[in-house]
Amino acid sequence: MLDDTKSNKVLVEVKDLKMHFPIHAGIFKKRVGEVKAVDGISFDIYEGETLGLVGESGCGKSTAGRAILRLYDITEGSVKIDGVEIGDTPQPNLRKMRPTMQMVFQDPQASLNPRMSVAAIIGEPLNEHSDMSKAEKREKVLSLMDQVGLNRDFANRYPHEFSGGQRQRIGIARALALNPKFIVCDEPIAALDVSIQAQVVNLLEDLQEEFGLTYLFISHDLSMVRHIADRVAVMYLGRVVELASRETLFSDPKHPYTQALLSAVPEPDPWLEEKVDRILLEGDVPSPSNPPKGCNFCTRCPQVMEICKTEEPPTVEIAPGHIAACHLYS
Ligand code: SF4
């Protein structure tokens, strides 16, 4: 459930989204298979909320974020942003929608052009999507720098002159330049020192409150997701296996994979640490080019049953707003 401060208007609707990448082999580059990075995910994101998308590395969460923003041509499914279907919109026509949806990338170092000044990087989207005068653009860039806590005197400096945290602030300022409604934050703090991770997360929260932003917050860090997300979706091998409010997911996880993930979160209190029941998953995550038949978690699930090996579990609502895909509940 959303808290009282959040809207009940759906801003982002994702339905049966698939993103498969072809595998080619041989001298004729024949298509021999496909990597099912995202294999039919569905969820809504409400205006003003943060939906956390969690899972181990390689589960498809980053690909899902990029596919939702149509940085790829998706294989199948529907993505609506503010009521507009963009799933099948040709790339050139997406340009009009770009200001509405933006992305903050994991590695600020790699996502900023080292040959451009900070002012040029932050102002770049304005060149393409606005008809502001040069002076107006300059003023907008400086005010964006203020909003993200960057000293405006450094507008003419280059990315390498900033720390990792400051570079991520530059990336956030650039994402904000066109007044977006929806931002995909793809592991935005994973490349930063622990000491500055909280500062960047607090900035994202402050900006959300100030501008009514809606976030898809992709992370493998469950403690951070617990801090920032209103609801949390758990992904495993290209599929969403459970989705619930933050409180419900962390206090009463239903899917065996979610239970295992949460049991692995380190407990800072050594006294409590001794009492934590860890669920150790056996084996590796199967390849997304050859996922298991039936439930895709059946090769590692501690509660696997015969039906799991042949039939894919349906996604069911086990309580209002709490969905899971597992035969234990179907
Ligand atoms: Fe485990 Fe079966 Fe549920 Fe899959 S469907 S998570 S294998 S119990």
UniProtKB/TrEMBL annotation:
PROSITE patterns in the record: ABC_TRANSPORTER_1, ABC_TRANSPORTER_2
GO biological process, one term: peptide transport
Subcellular locations according to the entry: Cell inner membrane
One of the record's GO molecular function terms: ATP binding
Domain ABC transporter as annotated: residue spans: 12-262
Family that this chain belongs to: Belongs to the ABC transporter superfamily.
Protein name: Oligopeptide transport system ATP-binding protein
